[in-house]
Design goal:
310 residues; alpha/beta; 2,3-Dihydroxybiphenyl 1,2-Dioxygenase, domain 1; nine-stranded mixed β-sheet; 6 helices; binds (2E,4E)-2-hydroxy-6-oxohepta-2,4-dienoic acid; binds fe (iii) ion
Length: 310
């Protein structure tokens, strides 16, 4: 598979209640690099092994949650093509000029059936991954990998209505593929879908929920399971509110911890998971198997995992 078209989640924009506490959380506890602050009070971060200028944007607001998620596409021509396909599908698309978003080329923006604002863009200023591109090293200089030390923003899981319609829209208009799904037992009714645009187990996932536009978590990738345990130590040492883990997902097979930022937005750090090829069959889980699907070791869900969204 050549990865063209939609490449990955390139940017998540979160609302937080207290900017300074959130900066400490994302910069010093998770260990992101602070890249910029703008005149409107937004703060921009990247993971150490990402090449583009930033992947997380936070701003202070009265309510928590997700402002938008932006996925990077492979070229400007791909962006033009997606714009046409999305309009032809009947979804309204807004054009945003280059430079409106920091360090970014032009974007298109639309609202998906679950009520979330999504953007696509092809260009963002590349600052490098802290190692040379010519005769590269395998680790950056000391002090660059800090905190939990995630290498990249990996995926987002969102809650809202019309999950099957979201799956259809993303597969038909943006060439995502169904990697895994949770269905009502004995039916094809999807309660949750996990879609991939790469050969990761997922690049985005939804859980059916009556209220539109909600965030379940943004997820950062760690290099190995030991780093997941280390992240747990950082959570413990800094009295960060832990939701659950370390444990393992049945879905995606990732080793995971969920925890909350100081405002209550859920974060995940995880490692592992399988490599998915486009000719893999989609994996199906029955609702009655939700326990092991989500937390494989004890096969049980905790209450906050299912109910807390921002
Ligand atoms: C993950 C993951 C559900 C599952 C979550 C799974 C249904 O976050 O990264 O594999 O919430
Ligand atoms: Fe996740």
């Amino acid at each position: 598979m050549a990865i063209t078209g939609v490449l990955r989640i390139g940017e998540a924009a979160l609302r937080v209640l207290d900017l300074e506490e959130s900066i400490v959380h994302y910069r010093d506890r998770i260990g992101l690099q602070e890249m910029a602050r703008d005149d409107e009070g937004r703060v921009y971060f990247k993971c150490w092994d990402e090449w583009d200028h930033h992947s997380l944007v936070i701003r202070e607001a009265d309510e928590t949650g997700l402002d938008y998620m932006a996925y990077k596409v492979s070229s400007d021509a791909a962006l033009t093509n997606f714009e046409k396909r999305i309009r032809d599908y009947g979804v309204e698309v807004e054009n945003i000029d280059a430079g409106v978003y920091l360090k970014s080329g032009r974007r298109i923006q639309f609202t998906i059936p679950s009520g979330h604002v999504m953007q696509l863009y092809a260009e963002k200023v590349k600052v490098g991954n802290n190692m040379p591109a010519h005769n590269p090293e395998v680790i950056p200089d000391e002090g660059i990998i800090r905190g939990m030390g995630p290498t990249r923003l990996d995926h987002i899981l969102i809650y809202g209505p019309n999950v099957p319609e979201c799956g259809k829209f993303f597969t038909e208009c943006m060439d995502f593929e169904l990697a895994e799904e949770i269905v009502k037992d004995g039916t094809d009714d999807q309660l949750s879908v996990f879609l991939a645009c790469s050969n990761k187990p997922h690049d985005i996932a939804w859980v059916e929920h009556p209220e539109p536009g909600k965030l379940h978590h943004i997820s950062f990738f760690l290099n190995n399971e030991i780093d997941v345990y280390h992240a747990g130590d950082i959570i413990g040492k800094n009295r960060i509110s832990n939701d659950i883990g370390p444990t393992r997902h049945g879905i995606t097979r990732g080793a995971t911890i969920y925890f909350f930022d100081p405002s209550g937005n859920r974060n995940e750090v995880f490692s592992g998971g399988y490599i998915r090829y486009p000719d893999n069959p989609p994996l199906r889980w029955d609702e009655s198997q939700l326990g092991p699907a989500i937390f494989y070791h004890d096969g049980k869900l905790n209450e906050s995992f299912l109910t807390v969204v921002t």
